[in-house]
Write a structure and sequence with these properties.
UDP-N-acetylmuramoyl-L-alanine:D-glutamate ligase; alpha/beta; 17 helices; 532 residues; eight-stranded mixed beta sheet; Udp-n-acetylmuramoylalanyl-d-glutamate--2,6- Diaminopimelate Ligase, Chain: A, domain 1; six-stranded mixed beta sheet; 3 domains; Protein-Tyrosine Phosphatase, Chain A
Amino acid sequence: MSVNHDGPATPGRQVPDSPAKVVAAPPRPSLIEPVPLTTVVARADARLIADPGAPEVAVTGATLRAHQVLPGDLFAALPGARTHGADFAAEAIAAGAAAVLTDEAGAERRALVEADVPVLVHADPRGVLGSVAAWIYGEPSLKLSVLGVTGTSGKTTTAYLVEAGLRAAGRTTGLIGTVETRIAGERITSAFTTPEAPDLQALFAVMVENGVTHVPMEVSSHALALGRVNGTRFAVGAFTNLSQDHLDFHRDMEEYFAAKSLLFDGRSTIEAVVIDSAWGQALVTPQTVTASTEPETQAAWRATDIAITPAGEQSFVLHGPDGSSAAATLPLPGEFNVANAVLAAAILDSAGVSLDQIVTGLATVEVPGRMERVYLGQPFTAVVDYAHKPAAVTQALQALRTRTNGRIITVLGCGGDRDTAKRPMMGEAAARGSDLVIVTDDNPRSEDPAVIRAAMLAGARTVEPAHGGEVIEVPDRRAAIAAAVEHAEAGDVVLVAGKGHETGQEVQGVVHPFSDRDELEAAIREKLEVNV
C-alpha cells in the first residue's frame, strides 16, 4: 500500500523556523511505500524503546522540524546548541509522528519518557539521519545522477554551468543550491545551500517522480560536516577552490578543508578537481579527473587562449582528455569563471554530454547575482555580485578591471554573526582593487552594524593611497548604492557586492525586503531621468 502526501512538487505551508525566519515546508513525494520500523531500526543500528505489545509501526516520511511533521513521519529529535529537539517531541507526536529518533540525552527528556510512540536511540542521530531518510524515501539518489560541487567560491556558477550543458543535451534536470532549487523547471526558493538530510532525500524522491535524470547541486562545508548529504550517492563530486570563509563554524582552514574533503571519501563515483591551488592538488588521486586554466598544465580538462570578446564575453579553447578541443564562449567575466567552466566541462563529460553540447551550454548560461550586469542604457557598467569573502572580492575586481579604462566604484558590506576575521581583509581587498569604496551594511543580523563597518574600514585604510582608492562610509545600503551610481561617469564600473541574488536584509531578527539588483536599477533609472 502506498501513502499519498498531497502537493508533491510544490512547497507547502509557511512555518516559522526561528523568530527571525519563515521557511517553506519542503516538498514531499506523492507516493511512499511504508517502511516497517524494524528495518529503520536496523538501518540506523539504533536501540529501540517501545511497548512490547504495540502493533508493528510503519514509517512514511522523516523530518527534524516538529512543526513540519506529517502523519507517519519519523521525527528526528536532535541535540542543538541552545535547545534539544526532544523538547518538541510532544508537538511532533501530536501531529502524527510514528516514531522518534534521538540520542541518550533526548530519550531521557520527559516528553519522550512519557511518549506513546517508539523511540530509536543512537549516539549520533544526526550522523545516521541521512541514510535513514534515504531508506525511507526509497534510496532516490541511486535513481538519479547527482553531480555535487563543493569549494569556497564558484559552487553556484559551476552548478548553473552544468545544468546549462545538461539542458543543451536534452536532459531533464533538477538543481539544488544557494539561489534556488528547481525540479524539472519548477522553481523553489532555497532556505539552505544544501537542505537538511530528510528534506534532501524527500526532494530527490520528488525529482524521481517528476522524471528528473540529473541533479547538479552545491554541497556546502556545513552540509558535509553536519551529515546533511549522508545517504546520498554522488555520480560526480567536484571541487572548485578554497579560500577563507566560514571560520565562525570551522576552527581553521585545515578543518574547513577537511570538511570539504568529505565529498571525496568514497561517496562520489567520479571525482573532478580544479588543480590550480595546493588545496585542489591535495585531493588528487590516480583516478581524479583534473581541470585547470594554468599554462603548461597536465590536467585532463584545460582552457587555453583565454580572451575577452568585443561583446564583453570571454572566449577560450576547451581541451578534453582525449585530445579533442573546441572553441568556447562564456558570457561571464573573470578567469575564475573560466576555471568554473572547465570544471563544469569535466563534470558534464563524466555525465555523458558531448563536447559540442558542453560548449553550447556554456555559451547560454545565466547565473542570478553572479557578475550579473544591470543595463538600462547608462554610459557606465553596473554589476551585482555575490562576492562576500576576501578572495571573491579580489577576483571580481580583477575581472572588472580588465573590462574598463575608467574607475571602479565598489559598494561592499559584511554580514553579522559570521566570520569576523575576514571583515578587515574584505575592506582591504576592496580598497586595493577599487578607485572608490563605499563601505555600507550587508546583513548585520544581531550585531551593531557600526562595529562591522569599523572593522572593514580599518582594513581598507591599511592600503596606501598610491595602491588603492578613496574609502567612504555610507551606512544605509540603499543610500550607498545611490551614491555609487551618482559618482559614476561614462566608462566607469559600479560593483555592488556581497548580497547577489538575495532579496532580503536581516536586521535584529527581521528580514526586510531588499534586492541589490532592484536598488541598482532604481538608482540608475533616477540618474538617467535627471540627466534627460
